[in-house]
Amino acid sequence: MTDAPANDAAEPTEDEVFEQKAVRLAKRERLLAERSDSAGGPYPVAVPVTTTIPELRARFGELEAGAETGETAGVAGRVVFSRNTGKLCFASLQSGDGSRIQAMVSLASVGEESLQAWKELVDLGDHVFVSGEVISSRRGELSIMVSEWTIAAKAVLPLPNLHTELSEESRVRSRFLDLIVRDRARETVLARATVNASLRRTFTERGFVEVETPMLQVQHGGASARPFTTHSNAFDTELFLRIAPELYLKRAVVGGIDRVYEINRNFRNEGADTTHSPEFAMLEAYQAYTDYNGIADLTQTLIQDAAVAVAGSTTVTWADGTEYDLGGEWDRISMYDSLSAASGRHITPETALDELRALGDEAGVDAPPQDTHGKWVEELWEHFVKGGLTRPTFVMDFPVDTSPLVREHRSIAGVVEKWDLYVRGFELATGYSELVDPVIQRHRFTEQAKLAARGDVEAMPIDEEFLRALEHGMPPTGGMGMGIDRLLMAITGLGIRETILFPLVK
């Protein structure tokens, strides 16, 4: 709060913005004309900051109304409120984290010429530097009684109305404005940084090594997805933006890095909606001498640690106020068993394709792009089971024909040791007992190549270099992948475009 109410004016029209810009540009010219050889102007190289607004609030936030400290501080911030009176001007200066302090510019402290310059030159949105005594105003607002000031950066466009919510489209397209005016936007950026730090800390505690793998690849692989393509002039060859780092991380495991992970960008040339973005941040990790059960335990720990780091508890509060419990041991259910229970039909890996099609027709489920047993089972599972999941749940044991990089189940024919983790109604992560037999892997790649030849743009090609690595011996390994953007969605309750700082927009 400042010592005066803010103005709740409507958003300026385009003509008004044009006029304001012209006025501000004239002020810029005046500042340029009046600057000295050593300082001043609308964009000085530096200003003599001695502390920050958050530091002052931490030290003096509990001052009684009217108190004086006798301490001089020099701070800088963006002007987000301004009220000019005859002999005293008020302004709220905002730091990057959203904390504010009041600047009080009085005739007695700065003199008539400086006070008039403030009134004529300072606009909402400008960055200013002020120096003076730290005090508490008569209304109890932590303030700087300004003895000197200077423009730190002149804004030539006005800020949006700070009391009117930006539309989602405006927030996404002009994230810099969103960060200025909306606390939630800044909090989300900080939450994302906290999540990444927590993930790295949990991995380090367990002996994992972080690596980086290529984003430009000579062929795409590691997931079933449509890639972006480009051309290398230097090599005169077609290249692909990676859809997953999996095949390179497994090479690292073959090479002896038994616990390895990467947090980086993936690119998939597919649709965009509330849970999908063509460019997204991905975590993948591989641990030798464990399986999909062990990697599920690790994933649960990673997510719970991240929740505690952000929210202080495994119970998180979403943007709409809903509380969601990420604590405890998470359920693990069988894909086939849960589908059978929900549909009222006994469905197994041996269930005929015609029977699955008939169930799909009866339930109004659209046929999947690839008419296979596994694709139908997954589509039917989403229809009958997915919507009923409330707690975090590992869905275990997938059809073999939809998981070409996964080891066959050790005791159940026709399925693989794979899980998908569902949180908040969407898939958050996936984990495998990794396929390490090079002969079976070659056969799976060959089957994928046949699908590609029949028009499946998501099918994987045969990766001979990866197969050569497997032929040198890869230990039993558990692996997992998790979208960082989706992890933020699970913790904050926001949509994917809110969790990505600068999402792709047309």
Automatic annotation (TrEMBL):
Predominant localisation class: cytoplasm
One GO term describing the cellular component: cytosol
EC supergroup of this enzyme: ligase
Cofactor(s), by name: Mg(2+)
Organism of origin: Microbacterium testaceum
Residues annotated as domain Aminoacyl-transfer RNA synthetases class-II family profile: 195-503
EC number: 6.1.1.6
Binding locations of Mg(2+) 2: E427
A Gene Ontology molecular function term of the record: lysine-tRNA ligase activity
Pfam families xref list: tRNA-synt_2, tRNA_anti-codon
CDD domains per UniProt: LysRS_N
Family that this chain belongs to: Belongs to the class-II aminoacyl-tRNA synthetase family.
GO biological process, one term: lysyl-tRNA aminoacylation
Recorded catalytic activity of this chain's protein: tRNA(Lys) + L-lysine + ATP = L-lysyl-tRNA(Lys) + AMP + diphosphate
Lineage: superkingdom: Bacteria
Cofactor, how bound (note): Binds 3 Mg(2+) ions per subunit.
Quaternary structure and partners: Homodimer.
Protein name: Lysine--tRNA ligase
Magnesium among keywords: yes
Protein's UniProt keywords contain Cytoplasm: yes
Binding positions for Mg(2+) 1 per the UniProt entry: D420, E427
SUPFAM superfamilies assigned: Class II aaRS and biotin synthetases, Nucleic acid-binding proteins
Keyword set, alphabetical order: Aminoacyl-tRNA synthetase, ATP-binding, Cytoplasm, Ligase, Magnesium, Metal-binding, Nucleotide-binding, Protein biosynthesis
Subcellular location field: Cytoplasm
